[in-house]
Known about the structure:
- By secondary structure, the protein is an all-beta fold.
- Among the domains are: 4-116, Immunoglobulin-like; 239-302 and 391-408, no CATH class; 305-383, Immunoglobulin-like (Sandwich).
- The protein contains one helix and 23 strands.
- A four-stranded antiparallel β-sheet has the order 4-3-6-7, with no helix packed on it.
- The longest helix is centred in the C-terminal third of the chain and has 6 residues, at 325-330.
Amino acid sequence: MNKYRALFLLPLSAFLxxxxxxxxxxxxxxxxxxxxxxxxxxxxxxxxxxxxxxRLFSVPTGGSAFWTETQNISxxxxxxxxxxxxxxxxxxxxxxxxxxxxxxxxxxxPISPRVRIVSSAYAYCARKADSANYLVGGGDYIQNQNTNPxxxxxxxxxxxxxxTAASSGVHAILGEGGTLARGIQGTADGSTLVGVAxxxxxxxxxxxxGAGNGLSSVFYPAAGCGGAFNGNLTGIYARIPIQTxxxxxxxxxxxxxxxxxxxxxxxxxxxxxxxxxxxxxxxSTIKATREGKKILFAPEMPEAYFEDVGQxxxxxxxxxINLDPLFLDCITVTDQHPLVVFVQxxxxxxxxxxxxxxxxxxxxxxxxxxxxARFSYRVLGKWKxxxxxRFPDADQSLKxxxxxxxPK
Length: 408
């Protein structure tokens, strides 16, 4: 059993097959190979320098190598990068597409199976390798595939890529995942680090686009945005465990400096209470009118109330109003938190007064009147569970951190 395993990451073959005619473009007889070295338990080898022999074959098993080279390779978390042919130039690559790379970590037996080398464009814009600082696409098509459902996220490209308008349809980095794998995954460990970041440096561009629920196309504002997320069922899903005050499913801020401005939290926990939406600015809606779309505002109060409205009519100077039981399920009615009732008469009478109780209220005509006057009413009750709140303190815990760095 082999002691080592090599995971194929991104070999860039310079051409389908090179010959030696004098009038050809001078292309280095080398291949840029990137991989990951692990043990039989898929654990990366320790960072060190290893003697590795590389061989190229025209068959997947057996046969004789048409090229051999040994290099001292340094690894970092198992990752390594090397130029095959840097010491012994590669004489050719079979034009029929049958080219297989074999690795041997000396003095162990060769690693099996061999890796098939496939063609790609001449990578003249690759400035640095996977384990270095960045990789510039510059219009190149860079593809990273993982179709093994047993090892999701095991293959990756570490670096920076850029696609430009001059190369429409070209991807800086394209990730394609298998059944249980992820197309592109980013992981970071640091207070100022970011797992996945996307910038669009165009004034009307969009930084990150995502689609789910089987969508093959996405929509985003013509003026661009930071992120556009689409789905047949859900566009954006955010989940935050309720652990401490200040937890929120989503946070939206309108600001110039990250400190002052207007914000809104969605699915937020503040002071032990939970809010659908909380933030600065007015609660409003937009409705179409004969003069175009207009903004309407919702009334807001320093205490949490639910309200109901209805119609009634006196009979010989009296009317009983029993509130909807479903409405009563939502409010608290006690001596400390009584109903608040407003009555508006529609007919002439001596006036009315109200006596409320736990399930509704009675309307009586003044001066023992006996009219049959009609009226409308509005009733408010304290939101169950939020009875004690009045001008509660807002959450001041969230601070904004700006990341000014962007792709060069």
